[in-house]
Structure formats: C-alpha cells, structure tokens
C-alpha cells in the first residue's frame, strides 16, 4: 500500500466524524478570475454540512496592495473567531476541485498556531462524487475566541526574497505552469512580466495531485527530485499570488521537510516590479 500524507484526510474519514464536537470544517474555495467561478456563491448553493466559508480575499492584508496576502495575527484571529473556530480544534479545509486553494488556508492556520489542521483529499468534487451529504443550509455559528501563535519564520517578504535570490540562500520552488515559468505564456494578471526568479525550479502544482488528491509520498519525492529540489536543504515556495505555493508547502511538509517557507507576495509582487531580475527559459 502506498504511503499518503499525514496532513490530508479522506472523505470517508470526514464523513464518519461529521457533527462531532471539536471539529471545524472550512470551505476555502477560491478561483482565478479567468475561471468564471465564485467560491462564496458555490458555498451558498451547496457545501459539506457544518462547513463555514473562509474568504481568502477578505481574511487578508488589505493594505499590502497585493492579492490575499497574509493578514496580521490579530485580524486573522478576529475573522476566524467570527467563524466559530478555536486554535485547539481539529480543522479540515477543503476546496472545490481539491488541492488547489485549500492548502493555502491549511498553511495559514498552521502559521497562526493551529496544530491539528488537515486538507480534504479530493475536495468537494470528490465528496459529491462519493454521494456524501451536501446542504445549502446556513451553518449556525457561535463566535469564539481564537488565540493566535504566529510563526513569522514561515513567511518570506519581498526584502528577504530579494536577498535570497541575490545571495542564493535557498532553493526556490515555483508552482506556476511551465509556460509561465519559462516566459512562453503570458501571466493571467495584467502588467506582469513572465518568466521566473534566477535559480528557481519549476514544480507545477498540477503535477502534485491527481483527481484532486495529493499524490503518494514516493511520487512526491520523485517529482521534487526530477525538478532538481534537494530535500535536505531549505526551500522557499512561490507561485502566482501565494495560493498554490502552499500545495508545494503541503507536499514538502508531508515528506518530513521542515525548512520550507512561503513567499507571500509571489509572482504578483516579483513579476509586477521593474527592479527585480527575471529570467526566461528552462531552469538553469
């Protein structure tokens, strides 16, 4: 039997625990503008019973000028408290297709100190295909107190990212597709150059999962090896706007890799500036 991540749970596991105390279910569905989908609207039409909706554009730093960057611990705590979630609960996060936007919120909860947080393998699509219950009923929420324990070392800002690139301090794993990484395809957001940071390696997010489920550990290890990522060294993850970088973070953490951090501004920041080095073509 192939070994799977300890940070994902199956739909069977979740179904057996529906409505049990101490469990928070979070719908973290988010889509790129070009997808023509809205996570909030889809949640209102159908969601896993008991789930609350986590709006990644709302629970964010509104002052950064960048899409859905990590908010302050205080703002995160206030927003998550209104969702009825405490830091000592078991939290299960899911999204529509599986392994797209949910790992970002999994990462956010971990950064804010939640120890028992998991991603639902297969997402909501897999849940529905299994014939498991869905509802459009509004989940009744009793506001709670969420006490954050912020791990600032898990996050990389622009100034540090620039030093990492200039001084080759860490490996960089970029989750964007090969076309955007090499500069062959345009970025989906206007005003951004395509290409990648010098020294970055390409680990397309689509290679890490199948049918919305995170691949087994052996497959993940092979993917990183083929991308040129040394799992014995530090890694910074990046993507278009900090969302799918967290899928790489989840995969790395699943393999026991601890020295990984996420560049929150990602390409939305790096690619939109004119003072940052950008290279095209395959990884060096």
Automatic annotation (TrEMBL):
Pfam families: Rhodanese. The keyword Transferase applies. The keyword Endoplasmic reticulum does not apply. It comes from the Bacteria. It is found in: Cytoplasm. It catalyses: 2-oxo-3-sulfanylpropanoate + [thioredoxin]-dithiol = [thioredoxin]-disulfide + hydrogen sulfide + pyruvate + H(+). Residues 181-204 are annotated as: Disordered. GO terms for cellular component: cytoplasm. Residues 19-136, 166-279 form the Rhodanese domain. InterPro entries: Rhodanese-like_dom, Rhodanese-like_dom_sf, Thiosulphate_STrfase_CS, TST/MPST-like. GO terms for molecular function: 3-mercaptopyruvate sulfurtransferase activity; thiosulfate-cyanide sulfurtransferase activity. Keywords: Cytoplasm, Pyruvate, Repeat, Transferase. Its EC number is 2.8.1.2. This is 3-mercaptopyruvate sulfurtransferase. It comes from Brucella ceti str. Cudo. The lineage of its organism: Bacteria, Pseudomonadati, Pseudomonadota, Alphaproteobacteria, Hyphomicrobiales.
């Amino acid at each position: 039997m192939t070994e799977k991540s300890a940070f994902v749970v199956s739909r069977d596991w979740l179904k057996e625990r529906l409505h049990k105390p101490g469990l928070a279910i979070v719908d973290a569905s988010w889509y790129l503008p070009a997808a023509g989908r809205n996570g909030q609207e889809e949640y209102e039409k159908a969601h896993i019973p008991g789930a609350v909706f986590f709006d990644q554009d709302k629970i964010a730093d509104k002052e950064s000028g960048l899409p859905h960057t990590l908010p302050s611990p205080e703002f995160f705590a206030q927003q998550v408290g209104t969702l009825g979630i405490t830091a000592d609960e078991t939290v299960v996060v899911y999204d529509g297709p599986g392994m797209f936007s949910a790992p970002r919120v999994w990462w956010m909860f971990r950064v804010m100190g939640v120890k028992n947080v998991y991603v639902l393998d297969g997402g909501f699509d897999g849940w529905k295909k299994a014939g498991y219950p869905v509802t459009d009923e509004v989940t009744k929420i009793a506001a709670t107190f969420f006490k954050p324990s912020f791990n600032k070392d898990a996050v990389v800002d622009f100034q540090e990212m620039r030093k990492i690139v200039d001084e080759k301090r860490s490996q960089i794993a970029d989750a964007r597709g090969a076309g955007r990484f090499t500069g062959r395809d345009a970025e989906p957001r206007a005003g951004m150059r395509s290409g990648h940071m010098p020294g970055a390696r390409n680990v397309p997010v689509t290679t890490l999962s199948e049918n919305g489920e995170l691949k087994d550990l052996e497959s993940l290890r092979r993917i990183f090896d083929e991308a040129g990522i040394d799992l014995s060294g530090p890694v910074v993850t990046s993507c278009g706007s900090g969302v799918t970088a967290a899928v790489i973070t989840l995969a790395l953490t699943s393999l026991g890799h601890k020295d990984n951090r996420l560049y929150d501004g990602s390409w939305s920041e790096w690619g939109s500036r004119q003072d940052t080095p950008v290279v095209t073509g395959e990884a060096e």
